[in-house]
Amino acid sequence: MTTPTLRLALVQAASALDPAANRDALARLAAEHAGDADLVVFPEAFARDFGEAGSDISAYAEPLDGPFGATLADAAAAQGTTVVAGMFERGPDAERPYNTLLVRGEATASYRKVHLYDSFGYRESDRLTAGPLEPVVVDLHGWRVGLMTCYDLRFPELARALVDRGAEVLVVPAAWVAGSRKVHHWRTLLTARAIENTVYVAAAGQPARRYCGHSLVVDPFGEVLAEAGPGSPDEPEVVRAVAERSVLEEARRVNPSLENRRLC
User: Fold this and answer.
1) Beta-strand (E) ranges in 118-168?
2) What is the pLDDT of residue 125?
């Protein structure tokens, strides 16, 4: 059944280097902050932080039904909602796992990050394997929700591919590394993806100091509905917003850019 609204909660919290501590944090934060949200979004790599740049994280990779996946499913079931969070998943290359988003609850899916962060002096591809070129969209209460991870945001073709598969909400968990101009890039790109695709964008980031924070929800007109500050590792913040189908339909009526495309 399609619902007129989709209630969103973005948990801007830092993951630690201890996977067990992160599992405990996820269960606790979901219990504290899920409320009546239909979709609760945690950041990228929440199962275990990346560690120092270039670190070997292969020892922390798990199967989708491993300890982190089980904790995620239990948290979703306990709160009667759907939860998204990032993890490192075992793949065919034991030394280079996938950077994976896991969805559990009333919707079930996984998405392996396509675009690895080989930019701004980083070489994510040295330690991770890129996922298959297959956009992932899930159904949740009649809404079509597309999945992206962090650096994917810089590639508008992925967002458009998700929208071509029906996405009305783009969910973007991230660990957006802090630095000069990085918050400006983050906010600008999220807003652009919303406007050019006439969709909601819900982005949950890890907080400062290492990352940028500023988790936010943007509506299909490009209005920022809610936004966190940079945050800190010691103080999780929760961003709440409601996606409204009436706003989505109005945006696509007055700005029919998806219909007006000529290069597809």
Assistant:
1) 137-140, 143-147
2) 96
